[in-house]
Hints:
- The complex is a heterodimer.
- By secondary structure, chain A is of the alpha/beta class.
- Chain A has 2 domains: 3-235, Peroxisomal Thiolase, Chain A, domain 1 (3-Layer(aba) Sandwich); 246-393, Peroxisomal Thiolase, Chain A, domain 1 (3-Layer(aba) Sandwich).
- Chain A is built from 12 helices and 15 strands.
- In chain A, strand 10, helix 10 and strand 11 form a beta-alpha-beta unit.
- The longest helix of chain B is centred in the first third of the chain and has 17 residues, at 52-68.
- The mean pLDDT of chain B is 96.
- By secondary structure, chain B is α/β, with parallel strands linked by helices.
- Chain B has helices spanning 44-49, 52-68, 85-97, 106-109, 115-124, 139-153, 169-181, 237-240, 247-260, and strands at 2-9, 75-79, 129-133, 158-165, 192-199, 208-214, 225-228, 234-235, 262-264, 269-271, 275-282, 285-293.
- Chain B has 9 helices and 12 strands.
- In chain B, helix 2 packs across helix 5.
- The radius of gyration of chain B is 18 Å and the shape is globular.
- In chain B, strand 11 (275-282) and strand 12 (285-293) form a beta hairpin.
- Chain B starts with a strand and ends with a strand.
- Chain B has a domain at 2-206: Thiolase/Chalcone synthase (Peroxisomal Thiolase, Chain A, domain 1), CATH 3.40.47.
- The chains are: A alpha/beta, B alpha/beta.
- At the A-B interface, helix 4, helix 5, strand 5, helix 6 and helix 7 of A face helix 3, helix 5, strand 3, helix 6 and helix 7 of B.
Amino acid sequence: xxxAITGIGAISAIGNDVQxxxxxxxxxxxxxxxxxxxxxxLTETHLFGEVKLSNEQLRAGLNWKDDAVSRxxxxxxxxxxxxxxxxxxxxxxxxxxxxxxSVGGMDRSEGFFEPYYTEQDFANVFxxxxxxxxxCTKQAAAHFGITAYATTISTACSSAANAIAMxxxxxRQGKLKRVIVGGTDALCRFTANGFNSLMILDTEWCKPxxxxxxxxxxxxxxxxxxLESREEAEARxxxxxxxxxxxxxxxxxxxxxASSPDGNGAFMAMSQALEKAGLNSSDISYINAHGTGxxxxxxxxxxxxxxxxxAQKPPISSTKAYTGHTLAAAGAIEAIYSVLALQENKLxxxxxxxxxxxxxxxxxxxxxxxxxxKHVLSNxxxxxxxxxxxIFSKA
Amino acid sequence: xxxxxxxCISFQDTFGNENPWxxxxxxxxxxxxxQPDYKEFVSPAxxxxxxxVLKMGAAGxxxxxxxxxxENADAITVGTGLGCVRDTLKFLKAVYEDGEGGLSPTAFIQxxxxxxxGQLALMLGNHGYNMTHVQGGLSLGYALSxxxxxxxxxxxxxxxxxxxxxxxxxxxxxxxxxxxxxxxKLPEVGEGGAFFLGSKExxxxxxxxxxxxxxxxxxxxxxxxVLSNTDVGFNYTxxxxxxxxxxxxxxxxxxxxxxxxxxxNRHVSFDHPTRILVHHKLLGxxxxxxxxxx
Lengths: 395, 294
């Protein structure tokens, strides 16, 4: 069974819908800057890839009545709405949702935790009602009337890639007819401070794959894809934006947070995804790398790419210098960019690059460029040793 | 999917106990987890850093593989409702008390939901598929569904499936305050970790076949025994306490019921059940698993 993508939706620091994201990608305009909405001391010292819409604007645009909702859920519903509308699918009991998030409703929970931890004040405890990741998915599913299947994957920064793969598997196994897959994460103090405590945040714009890279910028986003079998899509005359042809999920089993020096997990993820797709490494037209801008990731990912592709590497770029690292949403937002690369026949640049990493025999793609794009390989790696790769192909 | 080898850490004497049905003791607010000697599974250095969920994951996962006679599984899928609560709250507290500066990353690193499955992969040297589902009371259900899909796809023959949640005093206090705002009676909060070896083929350790998995309601079927967190059957939460993955305890007890055959004590009585329904309903999410004895 071929897995067709019939709808895409995205909201990130570089745009409130897919077309705005594309426009920014082509204009080389980053969305990373001073945060205006995030409440954290770190906004004074650090840059963030913040979505420009406030919770009130998101709620109004979605006609979301209930106050008890986190930004994570609102972002997710926003992007899902675009994907569903574009696909033209009708939600019935054969449509499922595989979403993902790393922090769930933490942004709203912090409205409770601040007075609680500073003044032992329980007044906002009701805000914890939307705390757990499952509630985010449950609320988004309910908003669109999805009842058949709705789960939340939380494998840190590889989450959304795993959601896409699981969606494909659900279709191939005939469990669902259509499935909405993707991920969401809102900025919050918890993650900002978490990554800061690990000392892997750059205080300037992140510089993926650059020798002088100094860490990542955190971002927020949500992105979703509507998947169905090619047969189903064609039968209802739906436009097919691309195919999901390969996927793999492996574990580096090296360290709780760091990637192995030989990039073993990533090497296995890319190799197994190619095998699943029935492709050779030379078939890949573009790699949308995980490329966070941290010393460890970019070094390890470079080595693993070299192990898979050898001297013949296709153009490679990380788009995280546009959006920031959007954690559980990263694999989904980058899936959308991969589909756009296929549709537009464009390579998207790796912003802020300065000097090559020693030992790398390649430089990332630095300019927007037209090219015949047939297959895009997208990497998403996370804490816990989680390494995932998804391959998107022209329909 | 076949199920057989299973482990459970709970308020009962379940870990490594082949017939826990005859040693059930009702719990109360003071009941503590019956914990194994974790040093048998994890190095003392690693143990010091580990929260309860991580310990339960490490010991439960390892012993489950041992019981199945396997060195490793092709894949690991874990369901957890709240994940690493202790480390999440610990890090949050530090964020607010220390004014967002000079924080130690340890609690943050161990706060991600996937650290249970990730830690297990690290310990076992398992490079296979590694997944974490976080879907309230359905978390274990989706981890089982994922395992079934993997097996169906031919991507795995054996899958280690886990269900883990921890409680802390602070969590119980927060839940109690939260449920108080909506006049919901908070059940006795439990915690625990259960692991199951799911396989494509029937193994020597296989006990039952999962013949039904409904992630959006109750299965209307005949069963010899119904284990539930509600009163539609034998209510296991009087022994496990309630939490998002308490159904892991229910599933474990179901497998042990097949093995025990006949049990007749002051809590329960059954005689060689061949079909068991495991049911869980919490906060509007309802699931059921139907098992058939091999």
